[in-house]
Structures are given as structure tokens and as C-alpha cells.
Design brief:
homotetramer; about 220 residues; mainly alpha
């Protein structure tokens, strides 16, 4: 009975995620697509052309993983969020605005993988991730504040575990952003590790003493 | 039991909204995408190139907000519309036809932001919004006329509040259209304010004396 | 209980219809998109450029209407088809293959609207419609044969009415195809009228004497 | 009650399949699209231009069939998989990553249909199919291992029949890959036959003695 309210919000978001993740393939160029049969490169020529596309393939895989992990997080939040209102829909639109934009900085970063001395691309990429982390936080804080839009039968510890993991979010992305001013590869690696971290669900605090793992130092 | 009839209409519409809103990102050009590694612009060159893309980014955000708000309105209408027939489906297709077209005038307006003395782009943009407002009205008037396709348990005051807010719709968009003949920025600002206005749900008339807020002058 | 089996088939088809109908907007070119601010055409130049796009807009509206009406028919069939199997899925894929292809002949026809003496474009367009009508028939004949995949509580007269309307399908499209060899505009108008005809639901045979309207001559 | 958990995973996957299968049409070029009315090719010129597009059409139909059959298999697996967890979602993302990539090697193969002496395109195409078969296996093995994520009321023989059919998967695709080193057409034909094979549902082992048909030699 209570389940239905976010159905269309999720369906629309799923559609946006699905289109955004699929459009990534349009960035992969097919060598010799505009050549006539007699001018097609032969095997000896085609192989280096295909191999030289590795930055594009890396950008494809990275963007795919990023948007995929974002979908996973969106899915995780909406197993707890059951009700909806205009503010939530607008915050969700803000989040989707950033997600749909992700392929742009990713393509730019892939282009500049061969020029690690240049920082502008990595700055834009890290900056987008900061805004994304903030958008996710806004959505979750708004929905979970005093359980505003959370379902009634939801495990309150799971809600708290997400809140903790997300609290942790924008700060390290900001570190990656500042790092991009000095060292492009280090910034990209940190961004990649953070994506991995958010793919993992927050650990539920079974015994009080081990809480969630991003806070191991505290306990 | 009564809920199901519009399910596929909503799923199809969600898909169209999702694709239309995501395709907007294809208009953002990535600088130097077709250059070889040795000819890539360096940071000093890339930053002004990225900054000069602000009209494109503005168009992206505006179109995204416009289509997003349209989705929000569509979602709001279909919490009340529960049944469907061929006429409703055709009116819904007409509405989607206009929504899918929105990126075209928006891109044109973004292009002409730097030439506010030229009015054709703003006219096309405002004209599209007039047609959109009319399409929304047609859909809603048809469905709500004598509660033709409205669910049986729906709050009748909510239905009336939407009817009032929508009645208000096409006229100010027509004002924005006429304004575009004389003053492009004023027309765009009015269009933006109207989008904001339709993002806000119609206020329910709790006591009779304060009705819906767009009619404050009457009471 | 019986309702669920075609759910994912419909969701996937809705997605394909939604993407196909939205991609149509990519064919509309935005004048001066690749020009710098100082070279933008002024109003006097831009208006004829926009007006000269009318064949593209006509193609956009026609394709949109065609795919929309196809969606409407697909929706109508699947209010009766409740079960699914591998053959139905493959026939549905065949149907989607033709629908996704529709923008190609439509764009070609729009291009050749200014050259009605040339017939190849209209032939391709009509030919695609013949194949589409045959695909729809295959899907419906397979599902409705001995009520193979039809729901148990379905109105048998509605099923028969669709069978009659569809029987009528491929033949007039074949007429339009042959007409395209001699007279392009007449062929296009016939195709348009047939799309309109299939947008209208088949009339249910209330009294036996008036059957469905495409067979008025018989009774 | 148990049905719901994979709903959003399937909706997201359906979206990705739908977009990927529809984007294929963008590879079909429309002759003379960028020409003014006076320079349009006439019928005598247009017909050979359209006929020369047959490799593109073959690639469109093949990719459409491939992705369609993959959707059919995905649908078949998820009639049995009822629960979900983070690992399944990541394996599903890996599978979608490969599926979205399919149009790239297919377009390359279509280009090289006229040059069967060149093997690089067929190698890339066969290699992608090997990775696809492995991804499908990983997803299914993970979900079906000790019935980890399988529904409780599922026919255990159907699950076993899929496991057997899939076990058979990567090996013949590897044969097709090695074949591509020596004979491009033979490799493509084997790939096509394998796609057909996986479109057919695994035969249920009614009497013990006839098991599933890919293992006829054993019994």
C-alpha cells in the first residue's frame, strides 16, 4: 500500500540512467567508417588504429562504471524512500542533471590521459564529482530528515548507515579536486577508489562496537 | 483495481521524457575531441574554451529544467487521471511531440544569448511554450471534463486547483511571446518565471477565502 | 494473477518506441549552430532559414504520428495478449526492427517532397509500411490463433474486431506501394489516411447487423 | 511477495537494451541528406545508392537480432532470479557494458564484409561474443549457485536446463574466435548459428533419457 508513491519517479530516473549509460558508446569511433571499400585499411593498418582507441575505451568503461554505481546508489536510497513530494522531485532532477553531464568531463579526461601535465580536464572531472556527491547528499538528507519520506517499516539502522557513509562523501571528492591542481593521475586514482567505495553498501552496525567501516578509527 | 489503466501510457511517456532530457547533453561540445594528442590545447588555452561554452551549459540547464518541470506536471496530472481512451492517448502524443521538440528552440536561444538585438530565436522559443501550454490544457480539460477519466476516489478540490492553475497557463506565455518581439531578455526571464510557477503544485483551497494563489486579487 | 507475463515484453517495447520517437528530433538541424557569435545570421536571414526547414518539420510530425499510432496499436493488442512465449517475443522483435527503421524512409521522403517526379523515396516508404502491416498481422495472428496467448477474461468480440481490422491491413498498403510507382503525392496521402484509420480502435459489433465499419458493404 | 526485488534491476536493464537496440538505426546513412533540392540524386542515381547500403542494413538486422536475443536470454534468466544483491547488480552492469558495446564490432564487421581477406574486424566481433558469453555465465552461475538468488517456487529442472545450455556457451564462441584468424565468413556464420541456438529456450528434460538436446551424445 505504502510502496507505490515513488514508482514513476524511479521509472523516469531508470530511463535517464539507462539512456545516459548507453549514449556513452557513441563516443567510440569506428575506424574507416566513412571510407569506400577500396580504401579500407588492411589488418596491419587497422590493428594499431584499434589499439590507439584505448583512451576512448577506458573512458567508456569508467563512465559506464560511474553511472552504474550512481544507479546502484539511487536504487539503494529508494529502497528506503517510499513517499515523494515536489521538493524531492526537484532534488532528484538536480541529481539527474549532474549524472547526465558526466560523459562530458569523462571524455575530456580520456582525451588528456596522454597529457598528464595538463590539469584543466581533471579539475572539471573532480569538480563534477564534488557536485554529484553534494546532490546525492541533498536528496538523502532531505528525504531522511526526521524520516520525512522514509517508509514506516524501514530498518532504521540501515538508514543511519547510509547517512554516515554519505556524510563522508563530498569531503574526499574535494580532496581529489584540490589534488587535480598538482597531480592529475593521483586525482583520477582517488576518484576511482571513491567510486568503488560507494559501490559497496554501507555495513550495518550489528554490534555497536564495529559501526560502519569508514569510521573504524573512531572505535 | 482502478489504478492500472494508464500504466503503459505513463511508462511510454516516462521513456520519452527520459530520452528527451538525456539527449540534451549531446549539444555540449567537447573541445579538441577530434585533435591528435600533440595538438591538444594546453591548460591556458583550454580554460577559455571551456568558459566560452557557458551559453551551451545555460541552454542545457534550462532545457533540463523545462523538460523536468513538464515531467513533474505530467506526473501530477496522472495521479488524478486513472482511465484512458484513444483521444487521451492522441492528446498525450501531441504533448510529447511538443516536449521532444523543446531542445531545438532552446539551442537556438542559447546561440543567440550573445545577440539580444535579434528576436527570431526568442519568438520560436516563446511560441513553442505557448503551444506546450495549450497542449497541456487540452489533455487536462479533456480528461477532467465531467470527471471523464478521473479516478473515483480523487480529491475533487485538487482536480479543481489544477484546472485553475492551468487555465492561467497559455495567456502569460502569449505575453512572453509578444514581449519577444521587443525585448528578448525580458521574454526569456518571463518564460523562466512561468516554468518555476508550474513547478510549484497548485495550492489547495483549504478555507474558501484564500483559494489558489494566482487568483489572490479576486478574493 | 494472469496479467503479469507480458510485463517485461511491454516495458522493453515501450522503451524502444520511446527512444525511436525521440530520436526523430535529431534530424532537425539548428541553423548557425557551428558559427561564432559574430557570424550568426540576423533575424532577416534566420527567418527564411527556419521556414526552409518545413520538410524536416513535416517529416518529424509524420514520423512521430506514425510511431505514435504504432505504439497505440501495440498497446491495444497487449490489452488482450496476456501470455508470452519465445515465438511471440521473436515476432515482437521483428515488429520493433521495422518500427525503429521508420525514421530512415521518412527522412528520405521529406527530402524528396520538393521533387515529386522522383519515386524511389516514396517506394521505400510505402514498402516499409507494407512490411510493418505484415509484421503486425503476424504478431496478432500468432497470438490470437485459437486464443493461444489471449487472456481468459477477454471480450471475444473485441479480439475478433481487431482480427478483422488487421486482415484489412497489408492490402491497401500494397496499393499505396504500387501507387508510388506512378504518383508520389497520392501514395503519401493514402499512407497518411491508413495511419489515421489504424489510430481509430476497431468498432465493436454491438448489433450483428452493423459489424465493423470497414466491412459495411457486406451487410 | 517474493517477486518484487529485481523489479528496478529489470527496468533499468530493459531501458539499456531498448536504447542500445534503437541507437543501431543511427548507423544507417540517408543518401543526399545534406544536399539542396536542386542537387538531389534522381531515381536512377538513388537506387544504386540505396542498394549499396546493404552491408549497413545487414549490420543493422544482425545487431538488432543479437541484442534482441540477449534481451530474450536476460528475460529468461530473470524469470528465475527473484532476489538481488550488490554482486548481482555489478555482474549485471558488466553484462550491460558488453551489450552496449556490440554495435561497434558489428559496424566494423559490416564494413569489412566486402573484404573477407581481412580478419581484424571478425576477430574483434568474435572476441566480443566470447566476453558476452562469459558475462552471461558469470551472472547465471553467481545467481544459481546453491539457488542463492533463485525464487523459492521455481522449477528446479528449468534452472538446471539453463545451467547446462550456458555451460555450453563460451567454448563454441572461442572456436568462432579462432576460426576468425583463418576464415572470416565461416566465423561469422558460426556466430550467427550460435545466436540462433541461444534464442531457443533450453529443452526441459521430461523423461530422464532425452535430457537437453545439446548433450544428446551423452545419453
Amino acid at each position: 500500500m505504502e510502496e507505490k508513491e515513488t514508482g514513476r519517479l524511479e521509472a523516469f530516473s531508470d530511463g535517464v540512467f539507462a539512456v545516459a549509460i548507453t549514449l556513452l558508446v557513441l563516443n567510440i569511433k569506428i575506424p574507416g567508417l566513412d571510407l569506400s571499400a577500396s580504401h579500407l585499411p588492411n589488418d596491419a593498418q587497422l590493428r594499431p588504429m584499434l589499439l590507439s582507441e584505448w583512451p576512448m575505451l577506458a573512458a567508456y568503461a569508467t563512465s559506464f562504471a560511474t553511472i552504474g554505481v550512481m544507479w546502484l546508489n539511487h536504487h539503494r536510497l529508494f529502497t528506503h524512500i517510499k513517499r515523494t513530494n515536489t521538493v524531492l522531485m526537484l532534488l532528484n532532477l538536480l541529481l539527474l542533471l549532474v549524472i547526465v553531464f558526466i560523459p562530458v568531463p569523462t571524455a575530456l579526461v580520456a582525451e588528456y590521459l596522454v597529457r598528464p601535465d595538463q590539469h584543466a580536464a581533471a579539475l572539471l572531472y573532480s569538480g563534477t564529482n564534488v557536485i554529484l556527491a553534494v546532490s546525492f547528499n541533498l536528496l538523502w538528507r532531505y528525504a531522511s530528515y526526521h524520516n520525512r519520506l522514509i517508509g514506516k517499516n524501514v530498518d532504521i539502522r540501515a538508514v543511519r548507515a547510509i547517512s554516515k557513509q554519505y556524510w563522508f562523501g563530498p569531503l574526499p571528492y574535494l580532496v581529489a579536486f584540490i589534488l587535480a591542481l598538482f597531480n592529475t593521475p593521483a586525482s583520477l586514482i582517488l576518484n576511482f577508489l571513491l567510486a568503488l567505495f560507494f559501490a559497496i553498501p554501507p555495513r550495518l552496525p550489528r554490534p555497536v562496537s564495529e559501526q560502519s567501516f569508514e569510521q573504524q578509527g573512531d572505535t
